[in-house]
Design brief:
Elements lengths: L13 H31 L7 H9 L3 H13 L11 H20 L6 H23 L7 H9 L3
Helix pairs in contact: 2-3, 2-4, 3-4, 4-5, 4-6
């Protein structure tokens, strides 16, 4: 009674072997795909922080725009001066740069509309206050302030 009646009493026909080989290959392919997916998820979840010395290097090379972007990326990922004191000086320099660039935009804008002129003057005054605050936090690297001023504030 233990004979396989479909293939004349033979156990393990060519079709059964082919089916088992295909099943093993598909199982291996599934395992490989799961490993690739796990690796991709791990890579995508990696968080890159710009370290304080990297920010200072960008500042020293005059790459302020990218450094500002990196600063905001860091802040979005939780790297703040409150968490790591080493960020306080580079962030102060970059905040000064950002406020100076906005001040240039506000003071160079069209002020023919009196209502708009008042808004622009108020925004420019806020920028000046931010620059003063940021400069007070620059410490020994305050010498970057005149360099930034030359980019935006001097004709």
């Amino acid at each position: 009674m233990g004979k396989n009646l479909k293939n004349g009493g033979k156990t393990g026909s060519r079709g059964d072997k082919l089916f088992k080989i295909i099943l093993i290959l598909l199982s291996l392919a599934l395992v490989v795909m799961i490993l690739v997916a796990a690796s991709t998820v791990r890579k995508e979840s990696y968080r890159y922080y710009s370290r304080p010395n990297e920010l200072l290097w960008m500042i020293r090379n005059g790459d302020y725009s990218d450094a500002v972007t990196s600063m905001y990326d860091n802040i979005a990922l939780g790297e703040t001066p409150a968490k790591n004191e080493d960020y306080s000086v580079p962030y102060a320099i970059l905040e000064y740069y950002e406020a100076a660039s906005l001040l240039k935009a506000y003071t160079g804008a069209d002020t023919s509309d009196p209502g708009r002129k008042a808004e622009l003057e108020a925004a420019a005054e806020q920028c000046r206050a931010k620059m003063k605050d940021a400069r007070s936090r620059m410490g020994d690297l305050e010498f970057f302030a005149p360099e930034i001023d030359a980019l935006f504030l001097e004709p």
